[in-house]
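=== RUN LOG ===
request id: a7f3
mode: sequence -> structure
chains: 1
length: 208
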Amino acid sequence: MAGRDLGQASRLAAATGAYICFEDEAGQNLRPPKARTWARRGRTPVAVVSGKGSGRISAAGMVCLRPGSRGRFFYRIRIHRGRKGERRSMSEADYASLVTAAHNQLKAPVILVWDNLNTHLSTVMRTFTGARPDWLTVVQLPAYAPDLNPVEGAWANMKNSLGNLGGCSTPDQLAGIVKNRLKRIQYRPALIDGFLAQTGLSLEPEPP
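=== RESULT ===
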């Protein structure tokens, strides 16, 4: 990834017809992000939010791109209700389900590009990815390189739409709203392509 392309991943995708699929995770609690809004002069707007109670959601998303094909976006949601002993992050099974579902929908090989999260590097995850050499290739992003991951654009788009959101008092309600926002992204391929443009990367391999 020394240049604007993805190095070997771009060349492999061009040779095999694979989708390059970037993956990333995000979380959101019941207190919505603050957002700038409008009101009549002299009347300070007030957004009523609960922000109370335990619970949050985790989301894993994949932006899948291939030259000549429309951009695709896939996601998985995990609800955390704050119960004792409950896992507080996405599991290997969650990631495996997401990657497998994307492959089944794309009907093409997948070049999976993700970061060095410990769950991505676990023995269980390596066993899963290593058992599928016929359609799955894994590429690790450099350390501390969120600016190279187009899924960050999807999270920014989703969280912007949650600004000052009121009336959400349970993690199940929050999950429903987040799913609604992520589904909107799925129906906007030009927006998905724009997430890649924000990174400055190109799917087309650079000349040697």
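=== NOTES ===
The first strand starts at residue 19 and ends at 29.
The beta strands are 19-29, 56-65, 72-80, 110-114, 136-140.
=== END ===
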